[in-house]
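Lecture notes, unit on protein representations.

Consider one protein chain, 110 amino acids long.
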Amino acid sequence: QVQLVESGGGWVPGGGSLTLSCAGQESIGAMAWYRQVPGKQREFVALISRDGNTKYQGSVRGRFTIARNEANNIVYLQMNDLQPEDTAVYYCNTPLSNSWGQGTQVTVGT
C-alpha cells in the first residue's frame, strides 16, 4: 500500500496563497486532493488524471490548481485567494482508497 505524505499547510490571511505537496505515489495514476473539517464529511477538492486532465469542486474552481511533477510523481495543490471556508485538513489520495495519511492543516484567517 502506498504511503502518501502531505505537506505545505499553515496559516494564511484571507486572500493568501499556499501550495500543498503530496509525495509517495509510486506510479503514475490519478491523484486527488480532499479536505475535511471536524464534524463534517471529507469532501473532494481536485483531481488530476493519469493523462493530466483535471477537475475541481465548484467552490475552488478558478482559485486552486492541481498539478503533477511527472519526474517524481509529486502532486501539488496550488491554492490562491484562500478564504476562511477553505480552512480544513487537506489530504491527498488515489481515488477509491480507504487509507488516509495525516493530512496537512490549512487555516485561513478571517
